[in-house]
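Weekend entry, working from home. Most of the wet-lab plans are on hold until the incubator is repaired, so I used the time to fold the two sequences that have been sitting in the queue since the last round of cloning. Logging both here for the record. First:
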Amino acid sequence: MSTKKEQAINDIMSSFREMANLTLGQLSMLEKLMSVNDRALADSMIAEMRETENRIDNLEVIISEQFTNTIVLYQPLASDVRRIVACYRMTINLERIGDRIMNMIRITSKIRNSPEYSQIAMLINNMLTSGIVMVEKSLLSFTNSDPDFAIWTIKNDSVIDEMNHKLLLSHINKSEMDEKTRNMVMSYIEIRDLISNIERVADHATNIAEASIYSLQGTDIRHTGIGKDE
C-alpha cells in the first residue's frame, strides 16, 4: 500500500473512531440525563450534548469527503474498499443515532415531570441500556475484528423490539385509562415516541453490526434474515 493511500485510509479510521466515541459518550450522557432531577444540571448537560451533536454532524461530512477522495484518488484494494465502505455505512448510522438522542432529549424534557413517565422511567432506562450495549458491541465487532459481537447484536435486535411492545402494553393495561385528560393522552403519545427512538437506536446498532460483518467477511447479510425468528 502506498504511503498516501495508507494515510488516507488511516485518516478515515481516525475520524470514524472519534465519531464512534462521541456517539457512545452521548448515549452515556443521555442515560445519566434521564435520571437527573436538578434542572440547572440537566440544562448544562443538554447544552454540552448539543455541542457534541454538532461535532458528530461535522464528522459525518468529513468522513464522506475522505471516503470519496480515497476511492477516487488511490483506488484501494478490494479488502480496503470493503473496510472503508463498511466504515462509511456505520458513519451514517452513528449520525442517525445522534439525531435520535436529540429527539429523546426533547421528549424527555417535555414529559419528565408527568406521572405517566415517572411510572415507567425505570423500564425505559433499562431499555435504553440494552440499546446502548448493542451499539457498543456492534462497534467493538468492527474495531476488534470480531464478528461474534456483530452476530450477538443482530440477534438481540428482536429482543429490543419485544421490550418495546410489552412495555407500552403493560403501561396501558396498568393505567386504567378511563378517559383521562388530553395532557395524559399526550404523555402516552410522547412516551411511545421516546420508546420508538430507543428502538431505532437498536436498529442502527444492527446496521453497524451488519456493516462490520461485511468488512470482516466480505458478506452482505442485510437481507438474509440472520438473527430473526431464532
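Second, folded right after the first finished:
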Amino acid sequence: MPSERLLTVFRQDEERWKKLYNDLYHFPLSRHIDIPIRQLSANRDYPAFFYYTDKLTSVLTDITAEIRKLLAILGSIPHVAVEQFQRACLVEEILSSNDIEGVHSTRKEINTAIDEQGNASGAANVRFWSIVNKYQKLESKEKISFSSSKELRQFYDSFILNEVLRDNPHNQPDGIIFRKNTVDVWSKTKVIHHGVFPEEKIVAYMDEALKFLNDEDISGLVRVAAFHYLFGYIHPFYDGNGRTARFISSYYLARMLHPLVAIRLSITIKKSLTRYYKLFEETNAYGNCGDLTPFIEGFLAWILKSATHVNAILKDKYRKLIEYEKKLHTLNLAGKTDSRIYYILLQAALFSGDGATLEEIASTLQKSSRTIDNRIKSYPQEHIIINKTHRAYRYKLRLDFLK
C-alpha cells in the first residue's frame, strides 16, 4: 500500500492527492468513523478514517514488549516502593497536564489534595481534590463508564468542573449537556480550530466518538489514540477539554496496559508539546482529508515512550536499591526492627519524592506509629531527612552517608 501521507502529497500534486485519498479511504484495512472533519472555514469536510500500517503494528508490538518488561521489574521491587513511586508519578502527571493547558499548579497543592482525600468537604475546599480523586480511581482500576454524552458530562462535573469555575465562572457549560456557544482552540499564538457547533452536533459527534472508543472489534490502543484526537476536535466544553481528554486516555491505558504507564502520559506529551499541537493541526488540515492515521501513530509513539521511560526509571532505582541495601548491612543496626525501618526509609528516598509517613511505615511493619516514631528519633540526625511540608511529616533516608 502507499506509504505517502495525504497532506504531503496535497502540497505537491493535486491529482495524485485525489487518487491517494481514494486508495486509502477504500483500502481493505481502512476503518471509517461517522464524524466529518473540517479545517476552520474550509469549503468542505471529509469523514474521519484510519488504516492499519506496518508502523502502527510495529509500535503496538513494541508497547506489548515494554509492558512485559514493566511487569517483570515490578515483580522485583517491594510493594511499598511501588506505591511511593506511583504517588510521585501522580503528582508529576497532574502538574504536567495542568502545565499543558497553562494552568498554574504546584506540587504542594497536589500533595495537599492527596492528603485530604479522606476529607468529605475536600471537593469544594481543596484545589485539585476532585482531579486527584479520579486519578486515584484510575490507579485502582475502578470502573468509570464513558458510553454516552450524558455520562461524559457527569464525569466532567465530578472531575474538573470545580477547577474550571475557580479559574473562570463564565466557563460553566450552558447547553443541555455541553456548551451552546462557539469556542476557538488555540496553539499558543493562533487559532488552529473551531470546536464543533451547534450543541446538537456536539452531542451527535461525541456519542459516535464514544461508540467508537468502546468498539472492542478494533484494537484498544488504536481506539484510545483516535478518540483523543476526536475529543480535541469536538471540544465539547469551554474549558478543561485537554485535561479531560488526557484523563480518559489514561483511564483506558491503565486498564489495557498498566497504571504506571497511564499516569505518565501527560509527562511524556509535555516533553513533545510543540509536536502534540502540530499533530492536531495537521490532522485537522483540509489536505489531510480526515485521515487519523498519522495522529494515531504519533499518539501510540507517546504511549511507547511512557512505557519505555518508566521501565528505565524503575530499572535504575532498583539497581540503586540493591546497592544501598548492601551498604545498610554494614551499619550494624541494633535489631531487626531498625533494619526494616532503615530499608523502608531507603525505599522512600529512592522511589518517593517526599518520603513515607509514620503511619505508612508502621502499617508496613505491623508496628504502632509511636514505636516507629521513637525508633526514628533515636537514629543519628545525619541519617534521616524529615519533610515537614505535609500535615503528617514524611521521612526518608539521607543517602549521602551511605556513599
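Plan for Monday: verify the second prediction. The chain is about 60% helix and 10% strand.
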